[in-house]
Design a protein that fits this description.
alpha+beta, 2 helices, 2 strands, 19% strand
């Protein structure tokens, strides 16, 4: 039996983002839940929730670039 070391959350996040980018789909609606601000700002619309209710919204221009900073 081969045992793999658990991956860090940031590694899994990067892999998920790369898979989504590879789809090449431009007009895709997706709901993603994250606590990572660097991931959240890559969306055009971010909703902020508290106690299960939407309390604020942030709309940004389309993200162009990478998250290497």
């Amino acid at each position: 039996m081969i045992r793999r070391q658990p991956q860090k959350v940031s590694e899994l996040t990067a892999q998920a983002q790369e898979l989504l980018k590879k789809t090449g789909i431009e007009d895709l609606a997706m709901c993603m839940v994250t606590h990572d601000a660097k991931v959240a700002v890559q969306s055009e619309r971010t909703l902020f929730m508290k106690d299960g209710e939407i309390v604020d919204e942030l709309k940004l221009a389309k993200f162009v670039g990478n998250d290497s900073d």
